[in-house]
Each structure stands twice: as C-alpha cells, then as structure tokens.
Amino acid sequence: MRRLVSELYVRDNCHPFKATVLVWIQLPMWIFMSIALRNFSTGAARSEGFSVQEQLASGGVLWFRDLTALDSTWILPVSVGVINLLIVEIFALQKIGMSRFQTYITHFVRAVSVLIIPVAATLPSSIVLYWLCSSFMGLSQNLLLRSPRFRQICRIPLTKSDSDTPYKDLFAAFYAKFISRK
C-alpha cells in the first residue's frame, strides 16, 4: 500500500506536504509583519532622524490619517472580518458533503473571522490595514484561480470539480444558501 501511495505521489505530483508549505511560510511571515508594524506604530523600533512612527502618524489616507491610531469608525476591522468570512464561505460553498471534522473547522474559522473584528479594533490602523490587504489578496487569488481562462493561461490542469461557469455557480450557491432561505 505504501508503495502504491508513493507511486501516486510521484505520478500526480501531489505530496501532502506541498499543501502545508504555504502555511509554514505565510503564517510566520504574517505574524512577524504584524509584530513589526506594531513595534513601528508604538515607537518600539527606534531609528536615527525622522522616526518610522512619525511617518506612520502622518502617512494615512481617507478616514485613517494616522496609521498609529485606532480606527474609530471600525471600517477597517469590520472589512477584515467580512473579507475573511467571505473567504471561508466561498470555501464552504464549494464543498459538498463535508466530514464532521471539516464542518467543525469551518465553524471555528467562521468564529475567528467574527472575533477578529473586536481584536482588530484595538490595534493600530497600520496593522489592520496590513491584515485587510492580506485578506483582500487571499480573496482575489481565490477568485482568480477559479477562472477557467486564467487557469488555461497558467496551464493549471482542470479537475473533475472545475466548472465552466465558476462565478455563476458560486453566486447561485451563495444565493441559495443565504438569500432564498425560507
């Protein structure tokens, strides 16, 4: 059995470790970037001349002019939570017949997505803006990799579960699950 599994790994180029490589790189990078931004925002990181904290304090845009301050409008924290929840729901909508463990994990990640809102509201805007950009890029990648044309351009092979109309299917599943419920 081990030999057959090893042959499948080689033939399909799909070793399970490959699925975890992203987590081993992306998660520590996300944590270190968040800590670095916190240190810059609070002035813990000292430098010669014009400090990074002063630059962050005057480098905001729109309603958050000071990236070292909290977002009093809660627009950034709520946006982070909503985008993370959207990513989870897109993943959950594509799965049919999830196992009990997958269902528990999905509920846990939904709860984390909601609980991140008050946590993000207590952090400097620079960190929350970074989290928002990171989540938005994750959502964008998730949606882009569903595009048949993009997959064809990048020579990503089709799978049995791929659809010719992934966005329509996603919208229909979203509509059926959340809007047309009675």
From TrEMBL:
Family of this protein: Belongs to the OXA1/ALB3/YidC family.
Protein name: Cytochrome c oxidase assembly protein COX18, mitochondrial isoform X3
Key words, A-Z: Membrane, Transmembrane, Transmembrane helix
Domain Membrane insertase YidC/Oxa/ALB C-terminal per the UniProt entry, residue ranges: 4-146
Keyword Translocase (UniProt): no
Signal peptide limits: none
Residues spanning the membrane: 21-40, 74-92
